[in-house]
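As a next step, we paired sequence with structure tokens, yielding the entry below.
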Amino acid sequence: MPFRAEHMSHFTTLSGIGVPRPMRNLAIMLMITIVGSIIFMLTVPWVQTAQGVGTVIALDPRDRVQNITALVPGRVERWFVKDAQLVKKGDPIVQIVDNDPMLLDRIRAERRQAEAEIAAAQQAMRVAQLDVNRMGQLYREGLMARRDYELAQIKVADYQAKIAEKQASINGIDIKLNRQAVQIVRAPRDGRVMKILGADNATMVKAGEVLATFAVENSPRVVELYIDGRDVPLVRPGRRVRLEFEGWPAIQFSGWPSVAQGMFDGRVFALDVNASPNGLFRVLVEEAPDRRPWPREPFVRLGAKVRGWVMMDTVKVGFELWRLLNDFPLQFQRPGDNIMDVARGTSEEADEAK
């Protein structure tokens, strides 16, 4: 039997219950919100971005912070500079002397003795060569034994070997002189001595020991960003990058770069083919030639922190949400995130070694 409206008269309590107006309004608002969100995700454009953090570095390795080391062992005799002092290429920085103040004189005397021995050997070889020529003439005339002639030739060869040996010793002496001649360490390029690590002339130093740090000022710079592997397939050289430098006020709106303020533009210069030890990929960003230049020193120095957004393709908001949610596993850890895993792995390696 079909249910009709007049049958409601038999259910007085049910007929007295109605849907509250707030609930009805809430349902309408939810439906409008859902429909509006679907339309928003399907129609509104969104610029895909790969966010990363990094630092400002020098493009040329020679322009990066480098160590000034002792070229020879000895003691510090004199400092020509102070902390934070500007220097030109070739300016002296520090002088190192050997413990023996007469070392150079002794090395030069050793060289002169070797030269004298070479001169004497050459004179003796010339005399021996004359004997060889005379004995050769007598041998061809049958007036000299073959053995005597061969012994004279061997004597000339011995003198030649002795001269070569002394020449090799002179080369070794020259190497010592050249090393001792670089007792004054000079600035490799124009720049600034950042920090002096050495002490006074009572300090002994070894060859290769760090004496000071040196940095080139106003060198060509690039930004080194580290981004997640999820975004690497969409990053390639030439992509635009929005940069926010440390200490520089800025406002960034990811997805709508035209709204951002205080940002600087860059361009992807290179991308590493393998991940760094932290599990992220390194991206090198250079200045965009068609945009305003980056802040110069002292506003942005080498080593300053940078936050960057690599601009990729323009897609719909819904597609970008789908891309991000597809790489959202419930459990994901990079190597080294869990200290217990690291400790467990170290213990297992030790057991295998035993």
Notes: The two ends are 86 Å apart (CA to CA). Residues 103-140 form the longest helix (38 residues). The chain has six helices and 14 strands.
